[in-house]
Amino acid sequence: MDFAKIRKSNSFSVSIIIVFMVVVMCFFKRNYLSADNISALLKVLAVTTLVGVSQMISIASGGMNVSIGSVGAMAAILSGLLMQNLKVPVLLSILIGIGIGVLCGIINGLLIYRNGGVGVASFLTTLATNSVFIGIIYMITTGHGVSKIPDAFVAIGSSKIGPVPTSVLIVGVLITLVYFMFTYTSLGRQILAFGANPKAAELYGISRFKTILSVNIIASILAAIAGMLVVMRVGTAQPDIGSDWMLQSFAAPLIGGTRQAGGKVVVFGVILGALVLTIIENALVHLGVDVYWTELINGVVIIVIMAFDRLRSIKN
Amino acid sequence: MKKGKKFISIVSCVALAAGMMAGCKGGTDSSSSSSQTQDKTAYDQSVWKDVVEFGAVDGKTDKDYAFAGVFGAINSYSDPMQGAADIAAEELGIKATEFDAPKDWVQNDQNTILDGLIAKGIKGIYMMTSDPVAGNEQISKMTSSGVPIVCVGGSPSTPSKATLTLATDVYQAAYDGTINLIKAMGETGGVVGLCGAVTDTNTQSRMEAIQKACAEYPNVELIQIIGDIDESEASVTAIENILAAKGDQISGFISTCYYPSVALAKILSDERYSNVHAIGCDTDEAVLDGIKSGALDGTMSQNPWGQAYLATVTLKMLTDGWTYKADQDFLVDSGSFYITKDNADKVEQTQMEATMEMAKTWTDRFDAPAK
């Protein structure tokens, strides 16, 4: 790949933005690149990236999934309760958590398929299932967190191998698998083809049902793992897990270069998009921004970066 | 293909139901309603004996004493409320109370619950509004139809048609918590405040209290107040970020909301932060565990038990014909307590003792009904 092509890529421009942000922060805060801060950034980055990849898969198929947060919470709470109340072994609880993701994905997939497939149908359907999943969580927990999480479970995502948090390694493996799926498997290519033009894809023999079901199962598995990673990081399973994932789940893939209308993904671009979001959140605390301004600045910076990227792509 | 889809649907539903049952098993016990009793033993042993009448007064029936509590949202803060209300109901010889709350802090959802309770015959309600302004409209509607309202947990916007509000003086609790922190720090070092939604007037009061307490000590510096972090992930992220940014300046954290308190209990259990002090908020299990493990120095407990207990007594008195004196304050401080390792196992007992102190003079705030 020649440099001219790299220079025109979305990832290049986002990387420039990230470098600029880090340089500015280092200018204002000498200890910005301290080991503690890099560790704090990486832990947040891992979950944000996974949430972004989960949404990216839905976007790639021409849909969207607003129930990612509640699926993550379902997996986190139910696996936590199994460990706390029934003393289910850690690994089995993780598998059940993933199974809950599969189940939620099947429910979403079936309902989206029945309601027309992609676009607004997927939005409305997952909006409804989001409400159902949250309702189930509150019904089970009555608003209480699960606090007796075994140390062995927490250690899986909050330990370090060398300087790198294990949560980052877990997400690294998962995102690589997703990259291979989109690059080398027929399922990945079918999802992209379906996202680019569903009718044409069906004429070529791609099953609408199988594609929608697969997309939702994979997206929900990743959301379930993200939910459990949050428990590993926080140390308790709280019913509010995933409640603030909505913005980051869309912003990370879109900043990273995923096509809003579906049909094109930049898997590793999601990491860059998530890094932008993580740096903004981290920088607001480092700079001691007044509490009344943080939400506004957070939103404005994301909009400016997305607008900048859109202008660049129009120019290209 | 159709059979396959049907099979997947059935398996999905069965598995979801099984998961829910697994989650429910051994979960929190919410069955706290007690049966009504006409046994006067509890009354005879209570402070209300010969002050407030037992059971229905002349001209009233048991149905006139059907009371309910409605909190602003599902929240662990309200856990002791129904139990406390039922103890009051037992002491006063009235029906056991009901309790409900909407999922989120949405006034419209709470209104639906309130309208439903009144439709089924509830004659008096103690409640925390989901929204202090919009909730006041609903309070006006209910009181105009003859249902007395006592607010608990937090005050609606004033003026209000509610009889009174039993709540924590949030300014005083935050101030006391910060002073306790500063003393634990040896009256020197940097303080970080962790707060909830900055649009909430209670949060603004808490922030002012933290600033004032820090300003009173010349060797204490308020490093930063971080707001809008009453969520599990946001609070962990904010605390990790501030420790990474200014860890060398931080000697203590004061948390005025739930999730940052839980996050502090987890993060400060790391030996690296053994010299960092912290005061949490409320008495959730995770916070108390944090105190017992030494990650937190203590927590500022509120008094939801006393709020529900005294609110139920008040509803009984209002139904009996008592009236709240015009010269009494609308907002009654239900107290806040500093919980440390020493009294972490006696939270409810501490709340009950403080409540019973208030109960001794509670009827002084009211005019008795004409005989």
TrEMBL record, chain A:
Record-linked Pfam families: BPD_transp_2
Membrane spanning stretches: 12-28, 40-60, 66-83, 90-113, 119-140, 161-182, 212-231, 265-285, 291-308
Subcellular compartments: Cell membrane
Cellular component terms (Gene Ontology): plasma membrane
Species, as recorded: Lachnotalea glycerini
Protein's recorded name: Ribose transport system permease protein
Entry annotated with the keyword Transmembrane: yes
UniProt entry tagged with the keyword Cell membrane: yes
Membrane topology, record value: Multi-pass membrane protein
GO molecular function: transmembrane transporter activity
Keywords for the protein's UniProt record, in alphabetical order: Cell membrane, Membrane, Transmembrane, Transmembrane helix
From TrEMBL, chain B:
Family: Belongs to the bacterial solute-binding protein 2 family.
SUPFAM superfamilies: Periplasmic binding protein-like I (SSF53822)
Domain named Periplasmic binding protein: residues: 75-321
Chief localisation class: other
Pfam families linked: Peripla_BP_4 (PF13407)
Keyword presence, Zinc: no
Keywords, comma-separated and alphabetical: Signal
Protein name as it appears in the record: Monosaccharide ABC transporter substrate-binding protein (CUT2 family)
PROSITE patterns linked to this entry: PROKAR_LIPOPROTEIN (PS51257)
Native organism: Lachnotalea glycerini
CC per GO annotation: cell envelope
Localization: Cell envelope
Gene Ontology molecular function terms on file: carbohydrate binding
